[in-house]
Amino acid sequence: MGSLILSRRDLDFVLYEWLQVTDLTTRERYTEHSRETFDAVLELAEKIATEKFAPHNKLADANEPHLVDGKVVLIPQVREALDAFAESGLLAGTFDHSIGGMQLPVVVSKAAMMWFQAANVGTCVYPFLTLGNAALLVAHGSQEQIDTWARPMLDGRFFGTMCLSEPQAGSSLADITTRAVPQDDGSYRLVGNKMWISGGDHELSENIVHLVLAKIPDGPPGVKGISLFIVPKFLLNADGSTGERNDVVLAGLNHKMGYRGGTNTLLNFGEGTHRPGGVGGAVGYLVGEPHQGLAQMFHMMNEARVGVGLGATALGYTGYLHALEYARTRVQGRPVQSKDPAQPPVPIIEHADVRRMLLAQKSYAEGGLALGMYCAKLVDEQASAPTAQECERAALLLDVLTPIAKSWPSQWCLAGNDLAIQIHGGYGYTRDYNVEQFYRDNRLNPIHEGTHGIQAIDLLGRKVTMARGAGLQLLLATMRASTARAASVPGAAGYAATLEAAISRVETVTGKLHGSGDVALSLANASVYLEAVGHVVLAWVWLEQLLAAGTSEGAFYDGKRQATRYFFNWELPKTSPQFDLLESLDDTTLAMSPSWF
Q1: CB of 199 within 8 A of CB of 208?
Q2: Of 51, 15, 9, which is closest to residue 33 (Cα–Cα)?
Q3: pLDDT of residue 333
Q4: What is the pLDDT at residue 174?
Q5: Catalytic residue positions, numbered
Q6: CA 399: distance to chain centroid?
Q7: DSSP structural state of residue 443
Q8: 20 to 30 A from 85, CA-CA: which of 26, 453, 502, 551?
Q9: Where are the beta strands (DSSP E) in 417-456?
Q10: Are 81 and 73 a contacting pair, CB within 8 Å?
Q11: Angstrom distances, CA of residue 229 to CA of 188, 287, 297
């Protein structure tokens, strides 16, 4: 039996047969790598995920972080797993050799990370956030800040967080009130509260490096006045060892529906419980220039949002594999054409409706995986393509795809987890089987790193119009290049024609929405637009996988062909009524008065 965490065979297909990631090794940045080193990283990730992360997934879910004498207590297996992760060197995978990294392509690193996200997403949250924190500091911090804070994170000694939201502001970052007061020594003192901080407090590392959005007094209003600060849990001594406690206080733990193995916190900065030097406020250090905090944070947002989409895919994928294994082994009922009770019952995978649900899961999970890996490779193209024009093209395409890469898997791989429960029947609704936890864990992904609605407004309101529509036109041209190739391929030409018609609908509907002259009306149904365009993009991804499969024989390739058939026959047609609704400029939701509810 293969792994129930992920499919290595499918990863190999996407990475090597479709995306041809070994071609990256001809680039200067990746010349030390080969198929062998990529495989070694994936094998190491699978081994650690299987042996150290997966075994305590349910245990951590049942034993949430809790406080004892003011300290967060976790089951010991979390620390053991994270120590193994740190010792593997995977934390430094994509970083430069100059700071101890391996200079792995992002696409390979993301593929490796998926093993951990699928095996135990609660424990995975600590390295996931630490990687994002360190990458931001490497991109925007001073050399001193990189040496002081990023290097220990890449060594696994420090962990990192992102502190954006506040209790009263939520996703509306323009309304944050945390303030940072400059000091004579060049540091700042921060006062305020931050909410929903994953990994915000624990005893898993020597230190926690918080990246905190705050406003400097007399700065510009709104988001233009936001700056970014390093605020450690512990201040450092002159020799780099941890010193006195900074004024960062755990105000409480949030108890979540899923992701229970990871701490999620409300943090108070500068409430006076710990006052370094007797002065009020938490000690912080400005990253880069004042009032550039949001731009700095969003510099890393594409990768973070692609990572969230891949996390949703990982949970959808493991749910699919568990449902598939259950359907193959659970014996129940008889074929509809044979009701003879004397005949033995059959595995439920023999029932057409179960195969329908499995096909849906397969199309969502394998489609989400392919989309996420494609976007991850765009990050590598952006960093290493041989010409500036190719780098710019990759950056533009990644920009327009990011809302889809984040939200589509978050919606549809969650739907796949729902189907996994359904396939298990009553057993799926119990804690005896893993699929109910996968659903609960995945339910966060349509919310964090920008909700479904925020991604929709980003796509329709900004991404498809940026650079006078250049991003959308590039996406459409990229998809049309595939339909042109497929038009002469037996077994693919019909799909190409169907997809070409859907691409044309995207083009015309987008023009109609932005031609209304009414911003509120144009964006009122943005979520429907995101879903419809997302399905068109996934149909393109499935056509690309079909072309990559070519005439190869075997059950794996036959499964790819049938999943493509399913997506084009069952999923893509859902977009027609959605495009009809959008094109009509329907104002039902906009015209609804709050008093009518």
Answers
A1: yes
A2: 15
A3: 92
A4: 84
A5: 449
A6: 15
A7: T
A8: 26
A9: none
A10: no
A11: 8, 5, 11
Q: What is the pTM of this model?
A: 0.96
Selection from 404, 378, 392 nearest residue 531 by Cα: 404
- Name residues whose C-beta falls within 8 Å of residue 319's C-beta, 6 or more positions apart in sequence: 361, 365, 413, 416, 417, 420, 435, 438, 439, 442
Angle of the 555-566 helix axis to the 526-549 helix axis, nearest 10: 150
Residue 377: CB atoms within 10 Å: 25
Tokens for 586, please give them: 């329907």
191, 282 contact by CB (below 8 A): yes
| Res 304: pLDDT | 83
Q: Is 489 exposed, middle or buried (0-12, 13-18, 19+ CB in 10 A)?
A: middle
Q: Which of 201, 196, 205, 53 is nearest to 117 (CA)?
A: 53
With contact defined as beta carbons under 8 Å apart, do 210 and 153 qualify?
no
Residue type, 374: Y
Contact 249, 274 (CB under 8 A): yes
- The number of angstroms, rounded, from the C-alpha of 295 to the middle of its chain's C-alpha atoms is 20
User: Can you tell me whether residue 200 is helix, strand or coil?
Assistant: coil
Residue segments in the chain with a per-residue pLDDT below the cut of 50: none
E strand or H helix that includes residue 267: strand 264-269
pLDDT, residue 279, reads: 76
Residue reference for tokens 């007061």: 181
Phi, psi angle pair for 160, to nearest 5°: -125, 160
Backbone conformation region of residue 278, classed left if phi is above 0, alpha if psi is from -120 to 50, else beta: left
pLDDT in the model for residue 481: 98
Name the token pair of 156: 């696994």
Whether residue 225 contacts residue 217, with contact meaning beta carbons closer than 8 Å, is answered with no
Read off the amino acid at residue 221: P
The tokens for 33 are: 């790598």
What is the number of H-type helices and E-type strands within the chain? 21, 12
Beta carbons within 8 Å of 412's beta carbon, 6+ residues apart: 316, 364, 367, 368
pLDDT at 413: 98
Lookup: tokens for 92: 């430094």
